[in-house]
Amino acid sequence: MFRKIMKTIAATALVAAALSATSFAGQWLQYGSDWYYQQDDGSNAKNQWVGNYYLGSDGIMYTSSWTPDGYYVDASGKWDGRPSVNTGTTQEPVNTIGQYIYNSPLVADMINTDEMTWSYGGTPVQIIQSNDTAFYDRGTYYEIPNCDVLGAYYDEYGEHGYYTLVTGPIYVRKNATVNKYDYNTGATITITAEQVVQQYGSLYEGGYISLCTIGCATSFDANGYITKLSVHAFE
User: Fold this and answer.
1) pTM higher than 0.70
2) Cα(11)–Cα(16) distance, integer angstroms
3) Tell me: the pLDDT tens digits for 44-86?
4) DSSP reduced 3-state for 11
5) Half-sphere exposure (CA, 13 Å, Cβ side) for 14?
6) How many domains does the chain have?
């Protein structure tokens, strides 16, 4: 146990040392597992590079992800040295899971058998579910970093359950349309994912960790980003 704690302390110290080696007038600050860069005027840097590290619109340093201008930063937050994947302003990181779903054939839904749904390589996709409530603002989209893409099955008693097809990040465009159903009033309104986050501070259904259901309620684009989703009541 002591050895594990010491390894964690050592890893944190290495990140701190690397960040402090990036010499600027401001200072790096850590809150929990997140790093911020405080500028001379006391504000946090946002939507910009500080040395080899990128700060998002929430001020949090990116880790293990693509920056809006197409560079990849590793688990420590440092640019990995590769050139940008963007050759023009219209290019952006591809979400490999979403793109694979987009390029897979539509198949019959396992539960609502009279409907067609997206598939993962031909296997019906029932739910995309986050393992936690983390999500990151990436400028024009939200990254849901820890998602399970679930398929469905029926047991010997005719009851259905779910199993994991693939795990990884999912991207949702800020302008994705959201059909929000309110169980209390029975009303459905269409807003954007960004408006949902502004209003509720989350993309998650109240009381659940499910990001969205599949079928006709969800759409993807060619780069694997969700462009339409359905959510229900929020807490």
Assistant:
1) no
2) 9
3) 989 888 888 999 888 999 988 888 888 888 889 988 877 776 6
4) helix
5) 10
6) 2
Q: Encode 175-186: b = buried (16+ Cβ within 10 Å), e = exposed.
A: ebebbbeeeeee
β-bridge pairing 119-120 and 123-124: antiparallel
DSSP strand pairing (219-220 vs 136-137): unpaired
Same domain? For 118 and 212 the reply is yes
Count CB atoms within 10 A of the CB of residue 164: 11
Which of these three, 12, 39, 73, is where a domain ends? 73
Same domain, 214 and 114: yes
What length is written for the chain? 235
| Residue 23: CB atoms within 10 Å | 6
- Give the whole-angstrom CA distance, residue 204 versus residue 235: 10
Write down the number of H helices and E strands in the chain.
3, 18
Residues 100, 224: contact at Cβ < 8 Å?
yes
Identity (one letter) of the amino acid at 172? V
Judge whether 197 lies within some domain. Answer: yes
**Does a structural domain hold residue 172?**
yes
Instruction: Give the residue ranges of DSSP H helices in 40-139.
Output: 96-103
